[in-house]
Specification:
The complex is a heterotrimer of chains A (about 525), B (about 375) and C (about 190). Chain A is an all-alpha fold. Chain A has a single domain, classed as Cytochrome c oxidase-like, subunit I domain (Cytochrome C Oxidase, Chain A, Up-down Bundle), CATH 1.20.210.10. Chain A is built from 16 helices and no strands. The longest helix of chain A is centred in the first third of the chain and has 36 residues. The N terminus of chain A is likely disordered. Chain C folds into 2 domains: about 40 residues; about 140 residues, Ctag/Cox11 (Ctag/Cox11 (Pfam 04442), Sandwich). Classes of the chains: A mainly alpha (about 525), B alpha+beta (about 375), C alpha+beta (about 190). Chains in contact: A-B, A-C, B-C. Chains A and B meet through helix 4, helix 10, helix 11, helix 12 and helix 13 of A and helix 1, helix 2, helix 3, strand 7 and strand 9 of B.
Chain lengths: ~525, ~375, ~190
Amino acid sequence: MSAVIDHHHADHAHGPAKGLMRWVLTTNHKDIGSMYLWFSFAMFLLGGSMAMVIRAELFQPGLQLVQPEFFNQMTTTHGLIMVFGAVMPAFVGLANWMIPLMIGAPDMALPRMNNFSFWLLPAAFGLLLSTLFMEGGGPNFGWTFYAPLSTTYAPPSVTFFIFAIHLAGISSIMGAINIIATVLNLRAPGMTLMKMPLFVWTWLITAFLLIAVMPVLAGAVTMMLMDIHFGTSFFNAAGGGDPVMFQHIFWFFGHPEVYIMILPAFGAVSMIIPAFSRKPLFGYTSMVYATGAIAFLSFAVWAHHMFTVGIPLTGELFFMYATMLIAVPTGVKVFNWVSTMFRGSLTFEAPMLFSVAFVILFTIGGFSGLMLAMAPADFQYHDTYFVVAHFHYVLVPGAIFGIFASAYYWLPKWTGFMYDEVLAKTHFWMSFVGMNLAFFPMHFVGLAGMPRRIPDYNMMFANFNMVSSVGAFMFGATQLLFLYIVIKCIRGGPKAAANPWEGAEGLEWTVPSPAPYHTFTTPPEVK
Amino acid sequence: MLRYASAWLGGLSLLAVSSSASADWEVNMTKGVTDVSHSVFNLHMTIFWICVAIGVIVFGIMFWSMFMHRKSRGAVPATFHENLTVEILWTVIPLLILVGIAIPATKTLIDIYDTEDPDIDIMVTGYQWRWQYNYVGEDVSFFSHMTTSRDAINNVADKGENYLLEVDEPVVIPVGKKVRFLVTSADVIHSWWVPSLAVKRDAIPGFINESWTRVEEPGIYRGQCTELCGRDHAFMPIVVDARSQEDYDTWLAEKKEFAAREAELTEKEWTLEELMERGERVYSSTCASCHQPTGQGIPGAFPSLVGTDMVMNDLTGHIDIVVNGSPGTAMAAFGAQLSEVDLAAVITYERNAWGNDTGDLVTPLDILELEEDQ
Amino acid sequence: MSEGISTKRLVSRLALLVVGMFGFGFLLVPIYDVMCDAFGINGKTRGTAYEAGAEVIDESRSIRVQFVSTNAEGMTWSFGPSASQLVMHPGETREMIFTAHNPTDKPMVAQAIPSVSPSKAAAYFHKTECFCFTQQVLQPGERVEMPVRFIVDAALPGEVQRLTLSYTLFDVTERMAASLDLASMQPHN
C-alpha cells in the first residue's frame, strides 16, 4: 500500500518540470550539477580558444596574428575564465551531483540558493566577456591584475571586470555555504565524518577555504573600485597607498585559491584509484589530515609569489620555509596513492588512466613547485615560462585531468549508459601527449630566460615555442572529442549497471543508473 | 597503440634535431657570470637532481605496480590500507631533505640581500616602455630604448641575432666591482632581470628596491622586463655592458663631459638671435645641399621651405620631420645625428629665415621633451 | 540526519564568517601598515614629523646618505636634490634642499613619496621636517627650495654604512582638483 502511495507521490510532485523552465527554476541538485558541468565545459572551450590564439601568436617569433594589446587581453581572460569559469564551476558541478549521493542526502541543504548561485555565473561571465567588445578592450593586466596597471592604467572596462569578479565570487561563496551545510547537516545516519568519501572531505575543506578567501578577493576588487572611482588611494603611492599591498591581499586570496582548484581533484582521484586497484585507499586518515594541513599552510605562504618585490630578508625566509613545508603533506598524498596501487589488481579504464596521469604529472608540477619555493632560485624562475609550465602542470593534468577522471567515472551514473571506452582512451592519450608536448618545453624556455606574458620573443626560444604550440593545438582539438564522447554517452550506449565498476564503493553506486531524479528521500543506513 | 608509438617517434625525432642545433634548444638555466648566479645555478641543479631521485623512486614503484599488479596478469589485490611506520617515515624523510636544501638556499639568499658597501650605485627606473639608468653622484643619466625595428617585429625586415634584446644605450658597469642597483618605476610595476647576473628586482612606483651584482667577466649580458607592464612589455629589454675598469672610466668620463655640455646648452635661456646664428651654421652644413642655401629646394627633387604650410603653421609636424625624418624619401631622421641644441637652432632658423618670419622660437628643451615623449 | 546545529544557524554563522572575512580584507590595510613600520617594507618612513629628543651623536662612525629623485609619469616639474649625498654621524640633524620648478603655464599640485633603502634602515631614518608631509602647490613658472631635515638614529644597525633616500614626485593636480580651487591658490611667499 505504501509503495503505491510513494509511486503516486513521485509522479506528481517530484518529476522534473518540462521545457526550458525546468532548467531556469530547478532546485534539483542533479539538474544544477549538470548545468554547472555544461557551463564549465563551455567556458573550458572558450578559455581554450583563447589559449589557441595565444599559442598561434607564439608559434613563431614576430607578430603575426594579433597585436600586443589584444594578446594581453587574451592571456588575461584565458586565465580568468579557466580559473573562475572552468575549473571552479566544474568542481561545484561535481559536488552538486555527487555529494548528496555520496552522503545519502536527498538534495543539497539550500536548493533555492543553489539555483541562484548557478545563475549568477552566466551573468558574471557574460559581463566579463562583454568587456572584450568595449572601447579600450577588456582586461589586459593579467589574471592577477596587479595595481596600478589594473587601476590607474586600466582600460575603462575595468569596472565591469570588477563586477564580474564580484558576481563570480558571490556565486562561489554561496556554493561553498551550501556544500558545508549539506555535508555537516544532511549526512545519512551512520555516515560519520571519518567515514565520508574523500571527495566529500576535500570539498568540505575546499568550501571553508572558499568562504575564507573569496571575501578577501571581493575586498581587493572593492578597493580597486574605490581607487578608480572614489578617489581613495589603497594602491596608489601618490595618495599614501602602496601597490605592493595589492599583491599581498591578492595572494592572500590567491594561494588558497590554487588549493581550491586542486583539493577536490585530490578527493576524486583518491576514490578512483582504489576503485580500479580493487584495494582500499591507503592511509585514509592521513589523507584527511594531509588535506587539512595543506589548507592550513596555504594561508601562510602567499608571499612566495612575491619573492622579487623586495620583501625583507626575514619575511623572505619565513615564506620560503613555509612553502617548502607544503611539500610534506603533498608528498604524503602522493605516497598514499602509490601505495594504494601497490599490490592491487589494476585495470586501466579511462578514469584510472586520467588518475594515474594525474598522480605522475601533478607530482612533476609539485617538483617544479618545490624548486620555485627556493627564494634564491626563484629570482631566476619568477615570471618566466618556468612558472607557466609549473602552474599548467598542476592545473591541466591536476585539476582538469581530475575533472575528466571524475566525469568518466560517474558518467554511467549520470546517463545510465557506458561511455565509449575506445574513444575515451583515445581522448586520454591525445590529451596526455598534447599536454606534455605543450607544457614540458615551457620549462626549458623559462629556464633559458623567456619571460611570461609576452607576445613576441627572441629566436633562441623559437623551437620549443613551436613544439609547445603544436602540443597545445593537439590538446585543444582533442577536447572536442570529449564533447562528442559525452553527447554519445547521453544519447545511448551499453546499459550501465547500478555499479558499473568492479572495485567502486560508496553510496552513489547503490542507486540505479541513471540516478533517479530523486534519490535517498529516505536516508540509507550506513554501517 | 600505433598512434602512441608514432607520437613518441615524433618526440624522438625532435630530440634528434635538438642535439644538432643546441643553441636554439637551450634547456637549462644559465650559470651566469657572478658568484650569486653560480650559487643560484648550483642550488637549482641540486634541487633538480633531488626531485629526479624522488621521482625515480616514486614513479618506479608506481610503474612496477602498473606492470606487475595488473588484473590481466592475474593479480589478486592485497587488503592492507595503513601502516603507521611508513607513514611516519615518508613524513620525516622529506622533512629532512627539505632541511638539507634549506641551508644552502638560506645562505644564498642572505648573500643576495647583502647590498652593503658597493663601489657604484646605479638607479634603474622603469617607464612604459623603456629603462632609465642614473649613475648616482656622477651626473650621468640616460634612457635605454629597444632598437629592434617595428619592421622586424612585423616580419617585414629580417630579425637579427639579438632580436628584441638590443638597446641604443646599454648600462655600462666595470667588472670586479660591486654594483648596487636601486630599482624603481615612474608608472606601473616593472621588473629588472638579467639572467646572467641572477638579478631580478621589481620596480615599484613610489618605492625603491635594491639589489647588487659583481660581474667577473667582461661581456654583454641581456635581459628583459619580467612584470607585465602593458602593451609593450615584451619590448623593453635590458643590456648590461660589463667592461674593464679602464674602459669603464673612459666611458664614464665621456658620458659626463657630454652630459655637462648638453646640460649647459639645454638649460641656457636662448634668444632668437643666438638660435638664428647657430641655426644658419647647422643649416648650411647639414640641410643646404638639398634644400639649397636659399631654402627654395630643387623642384621635383627637394621641397622648398619658404612659406610652406608646415614651416609657417605646423610646428609639431616640423619638429617631427626633422627629428624623425620622412620614410621613403631622402629626408633623414636628424634626431640621431644632431644635438638638441642644433635641432632647435636649425628649426628656429628655418621658421624665421627667407622671409618666413614666424617668430617661433624652438628651444633645445622642447626637442628634448618631444624626444622623451616618443 | 546527523546531530549538530540547525541548518539555519549554520548558514547564518557561515554568512557571518563571510562578512567577517570581507572586513578582514580591509583590515589587512592597517595590518600591512603596521608590518611596514615593523619591517620597513618598501623603505617606508613615517608621514609625520619626528620629535627629536636628546639625540646621542655617535661620532665613532659615519653614514653616507644618498639622495635620489624620480618624476612619476606625467610630472613635468624639474625636481631634485641640491647634492647627491652627504656624510654624517648617527644622531646628528642634517638638512638637504630639494628644488622644484613648475615649467608649465598651469598651477600644479605635487606629492612627494619618500622611500629609504636598505629597507631595514627605514625605521632608523627620522625626518624632523619634510616637504613630503604636505602637498606642494606651484604656480606657473614658480621655483621653490624645499628642505628635508633628518636624523639617522644612533641605533642604526652597524652593518648599514650607507642609506639612500628616494623621493618620487607625483602629479596630484587632477586628484586635488575636486577639493581645491586651483585658480584661487596663491603662490607661497
